[in-house]
């Protein structure tokens, strides 16, 4: 992959097709960039007449915004190929806990650094990274990525005070936030406290929701494999009473669902759940290849879209995925739901992910946005070139970005 840092000098970038990330496709188009920002967009023959500066012709490629991977666990990258599908979510969780303690901090750091390089080569520019140790936060500060780092909290007994997690500050590229792991691993009061802090700071709030049937059973009845695991690990609260609700309805009762909430997975959802999510304008983050690996099913994408929601994409971790490829996540959903327009998949991978993470100047090729773009070669033919593009092999040829 060729890298093209965009300096302060004006540059006019031409490509055969440009996807603006708002559902439009511009043929023989050009993007004018100044000081790392997009200042104009339009047909190349028109823009070149008045432009004075360097011109770059990328050729027969699709130019689109750098991708957003809205949900990663890079700390788990050292577990790549160490866990196998079992058809049981809790069996996988047990294996994850057992295998992780066998790894040193240096193992975790090195694998995470390699994973970041993989993401860069795949064309990702913005990350929603979830971590427990802070290892990847340091790596992100050393990297060229934009990111939201979610410090994940797991405490079903509710003994933690969130102030112990607040020593980090946000910067221009890396935003620091807090994330309760899931409704079944964090006490209700702690979930509400974390949401209150993120609301006060204007930061996104991310939580795993409705990922497995075991989660649904636990919140409905207070029984099953999740309760057994919590008890074994000394995490079950003796005063807990099952709310008798779905995971989505439970979070609604806690008052933590709003337009700044990212609900990750949303596989085990009902029409009533989708109505709640749509009313609260939450942001679903779908990780289909992880869901397939764990045998929990697929998110009902057509119904999610029909409800008016704007889902984004994540790869989850290399403990439940073999690749950190947003392209592969798009393809998995496309093969399951070919009736969904290819423009929608690309928007999920770019603009909607950036919006979910609160990055209002990324994820689109439009005036005022950061010039974070990728030029991708692939099959672009027929009356629906984006459909043939999604179906076929793709290669990121050029990476265009604005140095900090």
Automatic annotation (TrEMBL):
Cytoplasm found in the keyword field: no
Domain of life of the native organism: Bacteria
Keyword Hydrolase: yes
Pfam families assigned to the protein according to its UniProt record, in alphabetical order: Amidohydro_1
Domain Amidohydrolase-related: 63-391
Molecular function per GO: hydrolase activity, acting on carbon-nitrogen (but not peptide) bonds
UniProt keywords, alphabetically: Hydrolase
UniProt protein name: Amidohydrolase
Organism this protein belongs to: Thermosulfurimonas dismutans
